[in-house]
DNA-binding MarR family transcriptional regulator (Curtobacterium luteum), 147 residues
Amino acid sequence: MPPVSDDLLAEFADVLLRVSRDVDPHGLRTLDIVPLTGTEALVMRWVDRNPGTSPSATAEATALKRSNLSVALKALVDKGMVERRPDPEDARTVRLHPTPVARESIGRLHAHWVRTLREALGGDVDGVEGAFALLTRIDAGLRGVAR
């Protein structure tokens, strides 16, 4: 297999950015979802996938400074997306949970992404699993996660 050129990698990154912009729910086709900043979306994604997580674990997983995480969490709580609950085993610890509002908003977002991608692919989803594996590998590499 011939080596991948730097030009192809640069074009690949450019396509990723264009696709990302086109599936952005706050772009041309605004959805009925709770609007989030990039940092809030990062935190919400983690909390949604890890209900009951702690703020410390969230900060570590998202690579956010505690002060930035605190601001994002306050905004998510104010928007009704995240609920802080005391840890049943240690009342000094807080656990973060997605709310029903978050579940609805995330459900709408996922439905939007599915429709958008199916339309863009003309219903032919061959190759999506391989593309997903590649993008997951890139994501892990960018975050320094061991493979």
User: Anything to note?
Assistant: Residues 100-120 form the longest helix (21 residues). Strands lie at 82-87, 90-98. The chain has one domain: 33-142. Residues 33-142 form a domain with the Arc Repressor Mutant, subunit A fold (CATH 1.10.10.10).
